[in-house]
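Structure tokens please, single chain.
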Amino acid sequence: MDKIALYRKYIEEVMNVYGNETPAGKDVVYQQVFDRQNDHYYLMRIGWIGQTRIHNCVFHCDIINNKIWIQEDWTERGIANEFLERGITKPDIVLAFNPPYIRQIAGGAYAVE
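Here you go.
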């Protein structure tokens, strides 16, 4: 399996793990959004808790230049850890929610574009 196909598979695996959890509130659901053609992947939490509308992104990943760019991550554990456990190397994971200077301070732990 080529690298990009493997990354797509891993992103979808991680999304399925989190997307199959039971969300808080009986009127809240997870929506998994796969744009495989453009390599955009979102896990959304949508619904209502009482009178409060819930519509937020749990995580958002893109595949850009043969790397996984984590654009947003509100998971407790951090999806970068899920990718590392699956064998993706740190240079192929970009914590895009951090500004570039923070990524550089990390000592190359995560890719800098």
